[in-house]
Amino acid sequence: MTSDTATQARQGQTADEWQPAWQRRLGRFGYARGPQPDVRERLVPAFPEPGTRVWARLGAGPGRARLLARWSGWTGPLLVAVFAGILRFWNLGSPKAVIFDETYYAKDAWALWKYGYEAKWPDNINDKIIAGHDQIADAPGYVVHPPMGKWVIGVGEWLYGLNPFGWRFMVALLGTLSVLMLCRIGRRLFRSTFLGCLAGALLAVDGLHFVMSRTSLLDSVLMFFVLAAFGCVLVDRDKARARLAAALPVDEDGLARPDADVGGGLRLGWRPWRIAAGVCLGLACATKWNGAVYLAAFGLLIVLWDMGSRRVAGARHPALAALRRDTPWAFLATVPVALAVYLASWTGWFVNSGTYSEKEGWQHSGFYRHWAETSGGYSPDGFLAGVLNPLRSLWHYEHEVWRFNTNLSSPHTYQSNPWSWLVQARPVSYFYESPAPGTDGCPKDAADKCAREVLALGTPLLWWAACFALLYLIYRWGFRRDWRAGAVLCAVAAGYLPWFMWQERTIFVFYAVVFVPFLCLALAMMIGAILGPPGSTERRRVLGAIGAGTLVLLIAWNFVYFYPLYTGRPIPIEAWRNRMWFDSWI
Predict the structure, then answer these.
(1) Residue 93 buriedness (CB in 10 A; 0-12 / 13-18 / 19+)
(2) pTM over cut 0.85
(3) Does residue 173 have a pLDDT over 60?
């Protein structure tokens, strides 16, 4: 459960000789090592057999209870996802307005599906869009993010039209699916259906994830692809370790023992889950560039996991074995695949080459699409021109985007420093109105005006508890070598720490939605520790259940309390003021 450390064994050694030297020396003084788990169990811990007691108490017969218990690994996550979906899709078209940065991404998505590239919209067009206007000119527009996230948003607009429900549909769907994925990822990570479903339920009631799942911004799409990549890497880890375990020799007691030849030399063959991870990471990079940080972080995670797997299997030099047998193929399965997916996301920009005239130049094509021919200096002829010129133009475009993104420092009312993100010191207001009594849902008998707000605020008690959970995971990883804690910390760090390099840049707390699922995994792991390890006394279990249950219920209550601020529901102005716990929230 805790680490992948194991003694390096040699072929022909007995079980006692597998012990570390210090244990063998203590054996002279009567030290007896306790029973050791099978190496196969160390490589791939089994999922606990689901119990039938709950189903039997609900009236199910023995056969049906066993069937229901067997399917609990899917029924539990599906129920949590249905709950999350109902929350996210309920009244999704409200507010009926273009809120915050929807003014960019919803319109860019519509243009992509119409022309294949982002087009320039007239000024002050948002009110006309809400009224049903959807016609735009085909002049290219300058954008500062890759197109994949906008292609995804555009699917909903293609299905339901250019309206708030249409441009929020796919984001809400991905937000719901991310809850389902987190339940399954948590189950595999902790070998516990309960803790997996708990992590998903926490994500379902996090205010920041909830608001972002109902707003047409790119960050929720990025979060989905990053989480999917983490799940693929995790499944690949289990599959590879299972192959190592199956190849190990077995002693006379039927227990697998470490073997230097297997641990150091076994070829693990085809690993499709790594390719799937590469695809997901490419989609993340093609949504926002900070997906590239996850490409590097998960790549490092893959290498370290391969080393740990071969160490447990008995490799004499696990680092060298992993670098020789696994790392080159891991690189090819992720980095080139991600790059190919990234380039493929620009297909609309590439294929819409437009038309040329002496009078007007290039028309009906993406921004900078013909920079190489018009301003890029040397231009090859023939076949090379058709291949290299678009790539040179795209490189120039990306260079200009990099300059923009790294030098963006225009002051904004709701910008925040990453130091304040984990405590949610400065949320972002996406929408605010003050309807008078009797208008826009404000009760007629209200003593004063009402407030309607969509506030990108994480559920405060969840985030504050997650701060302690991260400290607990640092302890588990640093002092107990718990690989699960290390994996979650790696994912949080990849989404959080890079922003400290750009503290002068205009940045916002909603960027943190990318690592919210991993905060929920950290909190679920801490709650599992509060509940107590297997074999705890009944008193310990009861006290742990009371403490953990109280924390979860308080988080759920906190979400319900702030629910009006997440959905733009009109509430009396005094009730709105009561929810502004800190001046920095206003």
Answers:
(1) middle
(2) yes
(3) yes
